[in-house]
Amino acid sequence: MTDNPASALEQDQLDAAVSAAEKAFESAADLNELATAKTAHLGDKSPVLLARRAIGSLPGKERADAGKRVNVAKQAVTAAYEARRSVLEAEEAERILREETVDVTARTPRRRTGSRHPVNVQMDRIADLFAAMGFTVGDGPEIELEWFNFDALNIHPDHPARTMMDTFHIADTNGEFGSNLVLRTHTSTVQIHTMLNQQPPIYTVAPGRVYRTDEVDSTHSPVFHQTEGLVVDKGITMADLRGTLDHFAKALFGAEAQTRLRPSYFPFTEPSAEVDVWFAEHKDGPRWIEWGGCGMVNPRVLRACGIDPEVYSGFAFGMGVERALMLRHGITDLRDIIDGDVRFPAGLRVEE
Fold first, then answer.
1. Are 286 and 278 in contact (CB under 8 A)?
2. How many Cα neighbours within 13 Å face the side chain of 129?
3. Maximum distance among all Cα pairs of the chain, rounded to whole angstroms
4. Tens of pLDDT along 77-109?
5. Domains of the chain by range and CATH?
6. What are phi and psi of 204, to 5 degrees?
7. Interacting residues of 167 by C-beta distance below 8 A, sequence separation 6+
8. Cα 321–213–333 angle (5° rounding)?
9. 59 vs 66: CA distance, rounded Å
10. What is the reported pTM?
């Protein structure tokens, strides 16, 4: 890595990184060697990933072009890795079939020895719902650069969410990232990674763990889970957003569930709205319940990721997983979900 991080964005260096990665993957004799090569060429300190981090140091007008070139290089390295992995996995499968045997007559225990956590079951349920609608399911790092967590989402440096009162900041003891590391406060970071790695059309949902400096009480926790969705395509409107949310609500809360939108403000969407859901099976009777936030993707966010807002539009939404779980099962205290007593709450049954 040079003293000037932006030099990693030069085309000749990106081409060299792709060429070196292709040679390393092709020379890998087995999956273990391929895993080592992947770390070197697709890991956090690989040339292409270091080039991506350098995007934030460029002037705004240069970021889009740099993002596109880095994206092309990342896709080329990933394609070379996937091609070699397919070959090696096929060879490994053939070896296992040839060398290993299984006693199909052996008895196995039929009694279940445990169960999955309701939060994980809920996130998988949501992922399956959106996968059936044609969405991909995204994932990303929980320790993020501030650029991905804030700047790319149009959250300005003086925004209160960036203070230590709201966000966990991570000390960069190696000095590699200039102390600009945070525990992600939302899974919107996955949306930024997706837009940098993939050209529209984009239909993706990102369930995952997030962190904020909240005190633990009946409705707050410093560690919780979110599901955020993103669509970027030609001709996307608020009507598409509303239809998606209605379908999502009915899948989670029953056929009688409805949604309504209330005007709001988020830096990364414009226009923005709060989402309420009509929950007919609420323990205290049918009522409107605040569910999450949504809106049309702000053009500034699209530009930051190298997407032309004159050609593409999109919508985004985000909801808390624990909140939906509490509503569906009448849980009144968030702490009961994260408590270590597997017997609680009594009668809670989450379909797997």
1. yes
2. 21
3. 66
4. 999 999 999 999 998 888 888 887 777 787 776
5. 5-99 (no CATH), 118-338 (3.30.930.10)
6. -145, 155
7. 149, 161, 182, 183, 185, 211, 212, 213
8. 45
9. 10
10. 0.63
